[in-house]
Structures are given as C-alpha cells and as structure tokens.
Write a structure and sequence with these properties.
The complex is a heterodimer of chains A (about 300) and B (about 425). By secondary structure, chain A is α/β, with parallel strands linked by helices. Chain A has 2 domains: about 140 residues, Rossmann fold; about 150 residues, Aspartate/ornithine carbamoyltransferase (Rossmann fold), CATH 3.40.50.1370. In chain A, about 40% of the residues lie in helices and about 15% in strands. In chain A, the strands form 2 sheets. In chain A, strands 7-6-5-8-9 form a 5-stranded parallel β-sheet. In chain A, helix 1 packs across helix 6. The longest helix of chain A has 19 residues. Chain A is globular, with a radius of gyration of 19 Å. The two termini of chain A are about 20 Å apart. The relative contact order of chain A is 0.17. With about 425 residues, chain B is of the alpha/beta class. Chain B has 2 domains: about 100 residues, Roll (Urease, subunit C, domain 1); about 300 residues, Metal-dependent hydrolases (TIM Barrel). Helices cover about 30% and strands about 20% of the residues of chain B. Chain B starts with a strand and ends with a strand. Classes of the chains: A alpha/beta (about 300), B alpha/beta (about 425). At the A-B interface, helix 5 of A face helix 6 of B.
Chain lengths: ~300, ~425
C-alpha cells in the first residue's frame, strides 16, 4: 500500500486508509528506534530542507531526528518574522533551495496556508510542520498514534480538547483526524477562545469544563499563550487556571483508564497542574517519543515508501 | 442630413421609459441626435454600424474604481485604468482618492482631471473626506467640488470617529454631493483577513466579522437621518447591511448603496484554496449574504453595481494569504458577471441592469448618463448577449492581473464602447 496524498498539508480530507497506513508504519519505526543502533538507510540520498519561519524547538528537533534516523541529508533554514520583512518572498526562498536539488520541504510558518501555497509553486514534497492557527498534521498523527497505542483503537473513544481552541492548529488537526477515525470529539474553553461556528466541525462545544470532561477517555490540554490575556481575550490567568486548568480533582469525572495529553510546551500551574502532568495516566513524554516515529513514517511514505518498512 | 454615426439593427434599452426593443440611434457632434424606436429606419448615409443581435445601452458607469495614480503607477494609471474601463463597457468611472498622496485638495483633483484629458472614458474624481484620509481634519470640500469632485470618501479604511463623520456629512451639504462610506469599524476587524465564519475558523485565519460593517452602516443611516446629508454605502457585503439599508429607504433616509460583482458571485468557501486574489475588503461572505445582496439588487434596496477595481502587482499578491494586500480588479469582468449571474439567471431584466449600471450611478453622482435621449452625450455601450468567453487576465488592458475570475466562462460581453460619439473600444 502507498499513500494517496502527495504532500502532508493537513489532516482535513485525508482518508482513514492513509491515516491508518501512517500509524501502522510508525509502529515499525518505533521498534527501530528502540534498537541499539536506531538508524536505517531508508532515505539515503534523499535531501530534506527544514524551513522554520517561526520559533520551534521540539517540532524542529523531532523532524530533524526523524530525518537523521532515516539517513536523509538535511539542511535547516530558520528565521523569525515574515518573509516579507526579510525582503525575499517565500517562493524565491524555496526556489533557491530547490535549485540545490532537494526532495522534501518541511515548513513551519506563522501564516495559515503557507505550506499549501508552497505546494502550488514548488516541485518538492511539502510537509506542514504547523501553519498559523490552521493545522499541525504530524502532531495530530502522533497524538492519534499515542491514543491508539494505549487503547488499541481510535473508533469510539471520547476525546476532549481543552483550552485556546481558536488559536490552536493542534486542535484542528486532532479534530479532523479523530473524526475521520471514528472517535468522538468535544472542545472546551472560554467563548473568547473558541472559534465561531465551531459546531460545524462536527464536535461538541462546551464552555463548562466539568460538563465537557464527564464521560471522556482522553483529555488533550492545549498550551495557553500568555499574550491572550494581554490582548483582552481573558480577564486573568488566575481565573483561567481556576475554571479551565486541569487539576487532580477534575479527573474523577473521566472514564476509568483515562489519559492526559499535552502537545507542549506546558505552562504548569496554568492549564495543567504539576500533579496531573506527572501522573501515571499522563502520556506527555510518550507523545514526544512517538513524534519521531510518526514523522519517520510520514517522510518514508511520502518518499514513495510502501507499507512494509525496507530493513535492508 | 448626414449623420456622424448610425447604430442600426440592434435593440435599445431605455430605463427612463422601460423600452427594450428595436431602434436606430443617430449620432451627430458627439451627441445623440435622435432615436427611432422601430425596426427599420431611413438612413441617409454616413457611418452605419450594423448591430443585428446586439443590445445598445446608455453607457455604463462604474462609480468605484481605484486607478493608483499618483503613487503606484506600476499597478494602474489613469490611462490604463480608463482603457480597462472602455474594454469592460464603461463610458464613465469615478476614481477613489486613496492614492499616494491621496486626492485631498483641489490641486490633486485638478491633477486627475489633467491626466484624464487623454483618457478614452470620462473620469470623475472622488475627493477625500479628511486630510490624508487620516480622519482628523475635514478636507476643503467646496473647492474640490468646484474643481469636479463628484463625491467624498475615505474609502479603504472608513471614517472611524463618529463626530468626524457627523461633521463631514453636515459640511458636505454645501456641495450637494454624497459622502461614500467604506463601512468598517477597524477595531472590530484588526488584522482580519477574511470573513469571520466557519471557513475562517477552519482555516485558522483572523476573521472580519459582519458586525464590523453593519454597525457602521447603522451609524451612517442614523447620521444621514440626523443631518439630511446624502450617504452612499460602498460595497455592501452582508445580509444585515442590506436589511438596514432597505429599512432606511422605507423611512426616506437619503441613503444609497452599491454591491460589487465579486460579492454577488463568490463566497468565502473559495478561500480553501488560499488564492490571494480572493483576499478583498470587505471580504467574500457566505451563501446567505450572496443571496441577500442579489435580492437587494433586485428589489432596489441596493441601487447599483460597482466593481471596486483594486489593482495590485503580481509580487504583492504572490505571498502568504496573511501578507497579501486586499483587492481585486473588476473593470473587465463586471459586465460579464452581471449578465451571466443576474440576467441569464433571470434575476434582473435588461432594463433593470441598465438602471443599476448606468442610470442609478448617474443619479447618485449627478453626472450625465442612464438615458438615450436627444441632445444627451453619445455615451453608449453595445453588448453581445450571446458571446461566450473565458476570462484570460493576459487579455486585460489593466496593468494588473489580480483577478480571481481567471478561467471563468461567462456569457455576454461589451463589444463596442462609444464616448461622446467616438468609438473607444470595439470588437466589431
């Protein structure tokens, strides 16, 4: 089997077959990562450009590590601020890098749709590493991988995403992926941090945390950017923390065998208490580990790899 | 007697009498000499143009155009924009003052008048409401009006300060010309790039809510009612705005309004493609809004169609959606869209279209147009209603190419544009 998609721009519209293939393939790569020499020659000769137009540490490290574990050659381009401010357009930057013969572009950008625009004007395979508040498909995939690893399935799980849904690309990718795989999704946050017409995504929408948590299997807690308070969307971090922060006493509302997730980086004491972050039900660090395996699977499959990992 | 030009064999549209039928139009000395409303006329000679199957209309008027001169002559000039207008079937255009520098004094208005001397169509400048369009100080409206400004507008941003807008309306009464309002409270739209709704939520883009427009439409209506001055609402885009204007007209408030072809033919769903040519302000709205503006055009809540022709260079538009400027060009597609979307869909009749695109803007701006009567300037648009064509930006006379309509198949096109008896554009 091979993927139907040619770029990974988002999870909206990606078929269940493609998602399943990526998750299944990631299982093999996770096994490889556990070996003494966690490296395979699968992408030898393939060159990947990591274009990070927005600060990132974990996603950039995770992609870079995934590329190195596959023996791909990598180049990194990191800049803050818009390409406009820099004086060269995104198209010209990528055309220049492409002129050096690369195969895959991994792009993180503060503007929604930047990877989609790139896919229309360059020849390389494009992987979205997060665009504005739009999508972060590899995060959505690694979250689903982590859920499936624990529950053995995604179908029928009830997932609650809590926090700043409006500005979250993680939330959107999770929603599309999980709905496609047959999970139930609810979102919860103060109305000022919920996008308009949220119900049309096909999710439950709550502004009362206890109501949202009741009967859920998984809570995916989003980072609260502290500037939201400065821009008038929240009265105070204190009130946010009191009404939307996940603390130990809230967890009784969840189903048995519940799971706590967070894409990081965490603001302990704001959206999540330290006790919850470090509880036995927390899979926050396995998420990070799985991220490398999932990104290896994405890189491998988009390079034309078939379902079975070539071990040589 | 020999005529300079005779248009024979076509049908004419005369919104003054509601006549839509065969006629011969005789033109002399740049004016309409006579119109014979019957199938065959005796023609003494002269330059006879056979227009069988064509429709002869009073010249179309686009009251909302950005010509970018002075300041951005790489994007459009008064001449290139006028050529685009002629090719689109317009005989008169009104140009907005948000140039660099803005048209905010009599000298600037004279500059446009002088540059337009060689333009193929009539160019009517609109002056700024406030100096530099900054919203602080009223412009010298009386002097600008005396030099030919046909309206005042801070189009592009809108007058944010309520007291300033009230004073502007009061003062504009000295000139008897309308104030054209770009309705947008900028504190409600800060950094928004598209309509706030499900699609913006999905794409994670900052939204421009309908309420930002509607609140200001409501303000303008109340201020027009208070001051008795005429307000014209530019590019109405939401169902709520249409309702407010319809109600205001019932109460005899002196308000008029326009809608653009893109707001009646496209929705925000297209932005799933991230095509920056769809980035426009006010933004493309929802199906419900499209239906409402079309209904408003049909029932008269909205007076006219205007293109909001807004040229931008390729490099300005070939960017991430967030960074591209707002605006699209419309002079050369407006008429095709009106015929395809409104006439061919049986929403408006030919008589109504000529009202919305010629008679109504002429009334609002108090300029000649909208009638084919003896003695009137021979400003005429000839249309081939059957001509099917595909929009190809490379064919445009405009210096810019930022159209979202490339590749659209349209039916109906201007095939001849006549200004003061001179053929300024012809496909015949």
């Amino acid at each position: 089997m091979s993927l139907k998609i040619h770029h990974l721009l988002g999870l909206e519209g990606v078929s269940a077959d493609d998602i399943r293939l990526i998750l299944d393939t990631a299982v093999s790569f996770k096994e490889i990562l556990a070996r003494k020499i966690p490296k395979v020659p699968t992408l030898r000769g393939t060159t990947v450009a990591n274009l990070f137009y927005e600060p990132s540490t974990r996603t950039r490290f995770s992609f870079e590590l995934a590329e190195k574990r596959l023996s791909a050659d990598t180049i990194n381009f990191t800049t803050s601020g818009s390409s406009v401010a820099k004086g060269e357009s995104l198209k010209d930057t990528v055309w220049n890098i492409e002129a050096m013969k690369i195969d895959i572009v991994v792009i993180r950008h503060s503007a929604s749709g930047a990877p989609h625009y790139l896919a229309t004007c360059c020849k390389s395979t494009v992987i979205n590493a997060g665009d504005g508040a739009h999508e972060h498909p590899t995060q959505g995939l690694l979250d689903m991988y982590t859920m499936r690893e624990k529950y053995g399935k995604l179908q029928g799980l009830k997932v609650v995403i809590v926090g700043d849904i409006k500005h979250s690309r993680v939330a959107r990718s999770n929603i599309w992926g999980l709905l496609t795989m047959g999970a139930k999704v609810a979102v919860c946050g103060p109305p000022t941090l919920l996008p308009v017409e949220m119900e049309k995504f096909g999710v439950e929408v709550h502004d009362d945390l206890d109501e949202a948590l009741r009967g859920a299997d998984i809570v995916n807690i989003l980072r609260l950017q502290k500037e939201r308070q400065k821009t008038g969307l929240l009265p105070s971090l204190r009130e946010y923390s009191r009404y939307y922060g996940i603390t130990r006493d809230r967890l009784d509302l969840l189903n048995d065998n519940f799971t706590i997730m967070h894409p990081g980086p965490m603001n302990r004491g704001v959206e999540i208490s330290s006790e919850v972050a470090e509880g036995p039900y927390s899979v926050i660090l396995p998420q990070v580990t799985n991220g490398v395996a999932v990104r290896m699977a994405v890189l491998y499959l988009l390079s034309g790899g078939k379902g079975k990992v070539d071990e040589e | 007697m020999k005529n300079d030009m005779v248009l024979a064999g076509g049908k004419i549209v005369d919104p003054a009498t509601g006549y839509f039928g065969p006629a011969t139009v005789f033109i002399s000395d740049g004016k309409i000499e006579k119109v014979e409303k019957r199938k065959k006329s005796k023609i003494a000679g002269g330059n006879v143009i056979k227009l069988d199957g064509k429709i002869i209309c009073p010249g179309f008027i686009d009251m909302h155009v950005h010509l970018r001169e002075p300041g951005d002559e790489d994007e459009e000039t008064i001449i290139s924009g006028s050529e685009a207008a002629a090719a689109g079937g317009f005989t008169s255009i009104a140009c907005m003052p948000n140039t660099k520098p803005p048209l905010d004094d009599a000298g600037a208005i004279e500059y446009v008048n002088n540059r337009a001397l060689l333009a193929p169509v009539k160019v009517y400048p609109v002056g700024a409401v406030t100096v530099g369009q900054k919203g602080d100080t009223l412009t010298e409206m009386m002097e600008m009006s005396a030099c030919g400004a046909v309206a005042f507008s801070d189009d592009g941003s809108g007058v944010q300060n309520n007291d300033m807008m009230r004073r502007a309306l009061e003062y504009s009464k000295t000139c008897g010309v309308p104030v054209i309002s770009h309705c947008e409270y900028s504190d409600l739209t800060a950094s928004g790039v598209m309509h706030e709704g499900f699609i913006s939520s999905k794409l994670g883009m900052k939204g421009i809510p309908a309420i930002a427009e509607e609140l200001m439409v409501m303000r303008e209506i109340m201020l027009a009612s208070l001051t008795g001055a005429r307000v014209h609402i530019a590019h109405v885009s939401t169902a709520g705005s249409v309702d407010l204007i319809r109600k205001a007209k019932k109460s005899k408030v002196p308000v008029t309004a326009e809608v653009t072809p893109h707001h009646f033919s496209m929705t925000d769903e297209l932005i799933n493609s991230f095509d920056t040519n769809l980035k426009v302000n006010p933004p493309l709205r929802t199906k419900n809004d499209v239906d409402a503006v079309i209904k408003g055009l049909a029932d008269g809540a909205i007076d006219c169609v205007a293109s909001d022709h807004a040229p931008h260079s390729i490099e300005d538009k070939e960017l991430e959606f967030d960074y591209a400027p707002f605006g699209l060009i419309g002079l050369e597609t407006a008429l095709g869209l009106v015929i395809t979307k409104l006439i061919n869909e049986k929403i408006l009749t030919w008589v109504e279209v000529v009202d919305r695109m010629s008679a109504a803007p002429a009334r609002i701006l108090d300029i000649p147009g909208g009638i084919l009567n003896e003695g009137e300037p021979a400003d005429i648009t000839v249309i081939d209603p059957e001509l099917e064509w595909i929009v190809n930006p490379n064919d445009f006379k405009s210096l810019s190419r930022n159209t979202p309509f490339a590749g659209w198949q349209l039916k109906g096109k201007a095939v001849m544009t006549i200004v003061d008896g001179n053929i300024v554009y012809s496909l015949i």
